[in-house]
Amino acid sequence: MTPLIFKKTVNLPLPSDNDRRAHDQRLRDALGLGALSVPLTVTRRLPALVQHAVPFSCIIGRVGERHRLIDVGNERSYSIALDLGTTNLVVLLYDNIAQKDVLVKSRENPQVEFGSDIMTRMHRTMSGNGEEVYGVLLNGINGLIFDLCKEARVNRQEVHAMTVAGNTVMTHYFLGLDISTIPVDPFLPVVRAPGFFTASELSIDISPEAVIYVFPNAGSYVGGDITAGILVSGMAQSDRISILIDVGTNAEVVIGNRDWMIVGAGAAGPALEEGIIRIGKRAKKGIVYDVEITKGNISCKTFDQGTPEGICGSGMVSLLYELYTAEMIDRSGALIDGAHVTTIDNEKAFSLDCDCREALYITQNELQNFMKSKAAMFTLLLVLTRSVGISFSDIKAVYVAGALGTGIDARKASGIGMLPAWPAEIVRPLGNSSLDGARLLLTDSGLVDAVNVIADKITYKPMQDDPEFMKEYLGAVFIPHTNPEMLKAG
After folding, report:
1. Residue 248 has pLDDT above 80, yes or no
2. Which CATH code for domain 78-214?
């Protein structure tokens, strides 16, 4: 297993009448790596190192079947994994020498000023604001890298690699590619497998010769973040049929094994986080991930036991389940007058009383939005499994990533009809699988081949105009479903 970046120390003999090799050839022979690319910026530094006849370090990157000399004379080396999210950017700093994680930082994707969803941003880009939409992303990434390195006390010139996983549109923004053909028929990206670049090509503020690898997409709406998630789950190496559910700004579902994979995407995600529910938040300290209602009394569990200040996707699943079980809402999700129900701006709202600094309210309209999201999620699962001729009981492992995966209770999710009634023991949270997949590649450059195989294997099933999806969706808008038998998984 060869990491993406590694260090070798060489001690070159001084030139002589019997050894007239050029400096770069002398170095290539000493390294013994076969095909080796030596950038001009590095070649210029060789004479000063050779003339001292002392050992010096070489920082080398694995680029496909070749190697690239990135730096010489530097004993420290780091890499960055980047989760290029629509809502948030997350970076992980990795020490290539010690082979360990150093620090993780995140910030909101600055493109949100142009719209919280991808379609709005693309519309802005195609309406004459392209340079701004592209520019704020690059500035946001470089600013995040600056903060990351400053906090870790690392010189950015010592960062020799970056791996990047994001959806297809975000990847195109990152690469500065045209996105205008993605949202219109026949929905084509400019590039499917971007591969390797240098930092200088992409104007990323790390070592100019640093290797940057961008995960491949499998279509306009199946991006490198999904490819990374499949890699992390291990489902592409298994004979058994597994399912990966990644819910963030949108929802993607992958079903398959080592022989085949099919993926569908839909708008099931937004109601799980900021933008649709006013108190909706990403998972962090103080965010509610579980709710219990007993005899009218409400208790909440928050991440890191912080004071409640919002609710995440798994918290919304739990809340809806508890409201229905406690008969505080009916099957359609309508609030029933009683304790904890109040009025805000002439609209019914539920007061989530659980030792909050400020009262947390969820309005009737927000509950209905969540009902639509949970219905879309289940319908996506139902239609996709049917399309390959399998039932829910054929699924042997369920991997849940993204906003929904942190703290999810499988029993409650099936209780409201968001997920089938899969046994809890086969439902496994993956966390940020996009970031984890990018990190994996830093530790094993051979996974580049595995990633490309995964991307080639995926078949995409469009859902936006699928008649079966629209028909089945109507029954899934109720709790748990107009036909609860459909939820069975055994």
Report:
1. no
2. 3.30.420.480
